[in-house]
Amino acid sequence: MRLRHIEIFHAVYMTGSVSGAAKALNVSQPTVSKVLRHAEDQLGFELFYREKGRVFPTEKGELLFKQVLPVFEQINELRKYSSMLASTKMGRLRLAMTPAFSLEVVPKALAKFAKKHPEVSIEVETLHGPEITKAILNNTVDVGLLYEAVEVPGIAVHPIGLTGFICVAPEEYNLPDKNLTLEALQDLQLILLNAKSPLGQRLNNKLQDFWGGSGQGHIIAETYHLAKRLSVQGAGAAVIDKITAYSGAKDGLSFHELEGFGDVNIHVLTRVNDPIIGFKKDFVELLAVEIKNLENK
């Protein structure tokens, strides 16, 4: 039986007449009669017989109704659930980001998103770049946020913003210039990023090319935030990303733009078959705004 057959059969059985079924379903009586005949033709037996202007189920009709009833109830529940989804827009957002974005950008974006979409549950974690890609492919994360994403089959890469490198130094260094050149970095005790991350690799390659392969940081830090905290404690001048530099506390530090490093891409990752639409689109747009706000500080 088709879904329409089940609906008509149920309505006729419950109302006891074709006219009653037509009224309940808001269709014409000829439509009910036509669908009912089509169902009986397909089944090969009659579902009802007529007596004194009413219809009554046949023996086989009674037996079939016992099987149809739970199916009809499930269909009705499915309709109710679909309507609830349409009206509440309930859903789930699973986000993974590299640690730099967890300091200020994502918390601000998520706070605004949660107010706008209280019906959406949110799961958030910090991972390194390759771990984010793996999590998205394994469908344990919906959206990833990181620097300089690598193209991977099955992953869609969406540019969301730009950032760059900046030098943060203890205020007692008294660096005179707002902008620093590569030459000026040679005179500083540097805290650099290790080459495990795309930014660390790019930074180290740039410095080594300029210094003829002899460039070496006094301290090599794994995370950008750790490099910044080391600088706060007076361990040296840290060359880090602007997102980390301008996120959180800034007391005790001076900030210096670096010349000659170029822009760093910020990317959002999703699965190729999971487009950024609905509440996910709202969240990504909020992320873009917070990234831009931080860059303009």
CATH topology of the largest domain: D-Maltodextrin-Binding Protein, domain 2
Gross morphology:
rod-shaped
Main beta sheet: strand number and arrangement?
A: 6 strands, mixed
Contiguous uncertain segments of 5+ residues: none
CATH architecture annotation name of the largest domain: 3-Layer(aba) Sandwich
Share of residues in helices: 40-55%
Q: Mean of the pLDDT scores?
A: 87
Secondary structural class: alpha/beta
Description:
Helix content is 46%, strand content 24%. With 297 residues, the chain is α/β, with parallel strands linked by helices. The chain folds into three domains: 3-88, Arc Repressor Mutant, subunit A (Orthogonal Bundle); 91-162 and 265-295, Periplasmic binding protein-like II (D-Maltodextrin-Binding Protein, domain 2, 3-Layer(aba) Sandwich); 165-262, 3-Layer(aba) Sandwich (D-Maltodextrin-Binding Protein, domain 2), CATH 3.40.190. The strands form three sheets. The chain has a six-stranded mixed sheet with strand order 8-12-7-11-9-10, with helices on both faces. Strands 4-3-5-13-6 form a five-stranded mixed sheet, sandwiched between helices. The protein has a two-stranded antiparallel sheet with strand order 1-2. Helix 2 (18-25) packs across helix 3 (29-43). The termini are far apart.
